[in-house]
Design goal:
The chain is an alpha+beta fold and 446 residues long. It is built from 12 helices and 22 strands. Helix 3 packs parallel to helix 5, helix 4 runs parallel beside helix 5 and helix 7 runs parallel beside helix 11. The mean pLDDT is 97. The chain binds shikimate-3-phosphate.
């Protein structure tokens, strides 16, 4: 693994943010578009694909397993798939970089192909728990050897010896995780019979929508208590598609909060995905008093989208309902920054999963916010944040990003509303999900 020198970056008090921007494509949808196109028979076309490092890691992996993937000069991606069951054994280990989604979903795919695949990643990814996918995929017949991690976890590097035909599985998710759900559904694609995932708490449903869009026989039955039974019939044949990827609500989140916090701001963010399994942050910010207007709601690529107009607002602290957590699981770092400027206390609970993201986002946010002058109490599963009531934060600190793009971007936004600058020790991780983050910020602040 090569280590680039760190690139520190300073963020200071901002002039009002004004203007209209478009944000890059949705990361979750981009991964899935590449994977399913690479498994279809024939040529798929994808526009609006996120060209961040995480998604490019998925593209490289699918190429290494036989798909032809090309980017045209006009930005459209063309993918020739190998057909379900047709993945080839990669010649080298698949380097997943920082991307948990690439790793867990691809482990599902290769688990039911008769190939052996090794997965490696960066220091952040190599510390993340993989047992959550190893357990169900092993039950389907894959033979997986992982490295021992902290506290008995199983981690990268790991090797998957796939089995075909595998045994179909009915699996109740022990954690609310779209990655685990998707890994099992993707494993089910090449497994004869019905593979079923039982999901007590709904998580993002992009895999279900897109698998259906590619012609897979996938049904969803919802019990009276909201439990979802997602069933996929294998062995599936996928038909090539033309896909337009909507803008990523998790990337929009940084600019939504920036506009709410920086006095005088009034911005419009075009083409933001608003799938209900992703849109929790908008509801929570509105409850806090955020002025967020949805303009021209419409559908793009089978997903609801709208333009968002966001204006500076005085926010009030609230107790965030833990039930919304899965629909904004990646947005808590930036919500914590919004809470730091609100009036009164914001209380969050039920966020255990944040501890196993690209970094331990509860601990890292608590440390960073404290360093820039925010009063924070950390609990096992959340933070209590005492807001400034709109007064600028002290700032004047260097924040460790811990190879976590969302930590880096959250503290960049905090810098815009701080008296003294906030320095991020290394800005490079931002390119995993949002390569033009700084360029858009500069554009809005002019
Ligand atoms: C993702 C699911 C979520 C999310 C991640 C992307 C996906 O992870 O945090 O950024 O694309 O399925 P979990 O499934 O671990 O909650």
């Amino acid at each position: 693994m090569t280590h680039e020198p760190a690139t520190p970056r300073r963020f200071s008090a901002s002039t009002p943010l004004e203007g209209k921007i478009a944000i890059p494509g949705d990361k979750s949808i981009s991964h899935r578009a590449l994977m399913l196109s690479a498994l279809a028979v024939g040529e798929s076309r994808v526009t609006g694909l996120l060209e961040g490092h995480d998604v490019l890691a998925t593209a490289a992996a699918m190429r290494a397993m036989g798909a032809t993937i090309e980017r045209r000069d006009d930005g459209e991606w063309r993918i020739h798939g190998v057909g379900v069951g047709g993945l080839l054994q990669p010649r080298e280990a698949l380097d997943m970089g920082n991307s948990g989604t690439s790793t867990r979903l691809l482990m599902g795919l290769v688990a039911t192909h008769p190939i052996t695949t090794t997965f490696t990643g960066d220091a952040s990814l190599s510390g993340r728990p993989m047992g959550r996918v190893i357990d169900p995929l092993s039950q389907m017949g894959a033979d997986i050897s992982a490295s021992p991690g902290a506290n008995g976890t199983k981690t990268l590097p790991l090797m998957v010896r796939g089995l075909a035909p595998a045994t179909p599985l009915t699996y109740r998710l022990p954690v609310a995780s779209a990655q685990v759900k998707s890994a099992i559904l993707l494993a089910g694609l090449n497994t004869p019979g019905i593979t079923e995932v039982i999901e007590p708490v709904p998580t993002r449903d992009h895999s279900e929508r897109m698998l259906r869009g590619f012609g897979a026989d996938l049904t969803v039955e919802v019990d009276t208590d909201g439990t979802r039974h997602i069933r996929i019939v294998g062995e599936a044949e996928l038909k090539p598609q033309t896909i337009t990827v909507p803008g990523d609500p998790s990337s929009a989140a940084f600019f939504i909060v920036a506009a709410l916090l920086v006095p005088g701001s009034d911005i419009t963010i075009a083409n933001v995905g608003l799938n209900p399994t992703r849109a929790g942050l908008i509801d929570v910010l509105r409850q806090m008093g955020g002025n967020i207007e949805l303009i021209d709601p419409r559908e793009v690529g089978g997903e609801p989208v709208a333009d968002l107009r966001v204006r500076h607002s005085a926010l009030k602290g609230i107790a965030v309902d833990p039930a919304v957590a899965p629909s904004m699981i990646d947005e808590f770092p930036i919500l914590f920054v919004a809470a730091a400027l609100a009036e009164g206390r914001t209380v969050t609970t039920g966020l255990d999963e944040l501890r196993v993201k690209e970094s331990d986002r509860i601990a890292v946010m608590a440390t960073g916010l404290t360093a820039i002058g925010v009063r924070v109490e950390e609990s096992e599963d959340g933070l209590v944040i005492h807001g400034s009531g709109g007064d600028p934060l002290a700032g004047d600190a260097t924040i460790k990003g811990h190879l976590d793009h969302r930590i880096c971007m959250s503290f960049a936004i905090a810098g815009l509303v701080s008296k003294a600058p906030v320095t991020i020790d290394d800005i490079a991780p931002v390119a995993t999900s949002f390569p033009n983050f700084e360029a858009l910020l500069t554009e809005l602040a002019q």
